[in-house]
Amino acid sequence: MFIKKINKILNNKEISPVELTKTFLSRIEGLDTKIDSFLQVTIEQSIKIAEEVEKKIMDGKKINLLEGIPMNLKDNISTKGIKTTGASLFLQDYIPPYSATVYQKLKGCPLLGKVNLDEFAMGTSTETSAYKKTKNPWDLTKVPGGSSGGSAASVAAGFGVFSLGTDTGGSIRQPASFCGVVGLKPTYGLVSRYGVFPLASSLDVVGPLTKTVEDCALVLGEIKGKDPKDPMTVEVDGDYEKALARGIKGIKLGIAPQFIPKETQPDVLKAFWDSVKLLEDLGGEIVEINLPHLSYGIDVYSILAYGEAASNLARLDGIRYGFNKGDITYNRTKGLGFEVKRRIMLGTYFLKGENYERYYLKAKAVQQQIKRDFQKAFEKCDAILSPTTINTAFDLGAKLEPHIMAYNDLLTIPVNLAGIPALSLPCGFDQRNLPIGLQIISNSFREDLLFTVGHNYQLHTNYHLLKPPFIEGVDIYGL
């Protein structure tokens, strides 16, 4: 919706790419002090890209759909010549010598800046960042979710038409739910991870956060595809714009009791069932499915993701680059935050000696069971519906115990373990006016189904068009 509208306005010369970019930069300068979503604003780089797009227009050339569309990136996505910290002191002055593939594919988009995250994407609230604590635009006393909290908050606040985040256990979808925006976790292997700081390489994916499902589909169309620098990627035909034009009559939508745990907040349940009713009224067929191993998701994820994180972060010693104030032990002690060190220690334990067989290999076996559960479910349905999270955003500084914090990813983690795609979109608000998310899950490389169902839902609701209170009266896109 917004991307196509802006593209038309730019091509018609109703506003220039430079004017548009400066509007966003001005809004960030004036308002981001309230939510702290940006770690750095890249003024010169964004204006330079906008000027290049503007010259193309003035030369009489028609620009592509995403050219001139201002965006931002989660600060674990490498940008050549632009500081990329992973929200960690360890990389406080790190400037990558190369760019991530996803950034290269969006070279016509003015990069407004790099946004906050949990340190090395380890967390669910964006509070483990070494630099600042991002606030939820809907309530400045609440968290935005994590680890892509800066991405979700910035899009909700209108500080970019879209953002790219990463999702290892729910890190795009959970903050999208908390901040009332759309977030997609693509199929594993659909989008290149080259140039993205690894957390758990077998689970990590890159995906877009946007205001609308349509915009999400358009961004995915640009960033997907095989990349020789990421051997796990594949080339998949996917006309996502065609998917947006389809209705949902006859599409079978599965509901599993395991995706509706008793701990779910009542307001979340009501919004979910209201959404199910709407989709049924639009022609969707509701079928009951069973996912018996879903409850093991958090435990399996913790063992696998922490083990891989411990292995991936072993390269950080501060000697070759990064935080270097002494020997390796001192560098890692002072340069890494508590949550990162906690996960490294647990991951090292899971991989050590006989524990590898006792924990890690058993977790891999249960992961296969979870994958099989989903495959059996997709024999009965085309897509699966669930709440994105069991609760809405919680208080900043709540200092929840790690096992309680993990419950925020209870409904998102199984999707990562199965390697399949899922979309979160806003489906209502609780009694405190905090956003609620609906999660739609499909089989591998069927993102088109997610967009069909999600877009039809948004054609009949307006949750995605509502603005957080602190920017009421501000035209989000300055048009």
Automatic annotation (TrEMBL):
<keyword id="KW-0436">Ligase</keyword>
<dbReference type="GO" id="GO:0016740">
    <property type="term" value="F:transferase activity"/>
</dbReference>
<comment type="similarity">
    <text>Belongs to the amidase family. GatA subfamily.</text>
</comment>
<dbReference type="InterPro" id="IPR000120">
    <property type="entry name" value="Amidase"/>
</dbReference>
<keyword id="KW-0648">Protein biosynthesis</keyword>
<feature type="active site" description="Acyl-ester intermediate">
    <location>
        <position position="171"/>
    </location>
</feature>
<dbReference type="GO" id="GO:0006412">
    <property type="term" value="P:translation"/>
</dbReference>
<protein>
    <recommendedName>
        <fullName>Glutamyl-tRNA(Gln) amidotransferase subunit A</fullName>
        <ecNumber>6.3.5.7</ecNumber>
    </recommendedName>
</protein>
<keyword id="KW-0808">Transferase</keyword>
<dbReference type="GO" id="GO:0005524">
    <property type="term" value="F:ATP binding"/>
</dbReference>
<dbReference type="InterPro" id="IPR036928">
    <property type="entry name" value="AS_sf"/>
</dbReference>
<comment type="subunit">
    <text>Heterotrimer of A, B and C subunits.</text>
</comment>
<keyword id="KW-0067">ATP-binding</keyword>
<keyword id="KW-0547">Nucleotide-binding</keyword>
<dbReference type="Pfam" id="PF01425">
    <property type="entry name" value="Amidase"/>
</dbReference>
<dbReference type="InterPro" id="IPR004412">
    <property type="entry name" value="GatA"/>
</dbReference>
<feature type="domain" description="Amidase">
    <location>
        <begin position="19"/>
        <end position="450"/>
    </location>
</feature>
<dbReference type="GO" id="GO:0030956">
    <property type="term" value="C:glutamyl-tRNA(Gln) amidotransferase complex"/>
</dbReference>
<feature type="active site" description="Charge relay system">
    <location>
        <position position="147"/>
    </location>
</feature>
<feature type="active site" description="Charge relay system">
    <location>
        <position position="74"/>
    </location>
</feature>
<comment type="function">
    <text>Allows the formation of correctly charged Gln-tRNA(Gln) through the transamidation of misacylated Glu-tRNA(Gln) in organisms which lack glutaminyl-tRNA synthetase. The reaction takes place in the presence of glutamine and ATP through an activated gamma-phospho-Glu-tRNA(Gln).</text>
</comment>
<dbReference type="InterPro" id="IPR020556">
    <property type="entry name" value="Amidase_CS"/>
</dbReference>
<dbReference type="InterPro" id="IPR023631">
    <property type="entry name" value="Amidase_dom"/>
</dbReference>
<dbReference type="GO" id="GO:0050567">
    <property type="term" value="F:glutaminyl-tRNA synthase (glutamine-hydrolyzing) activity"/>
</dbReference>
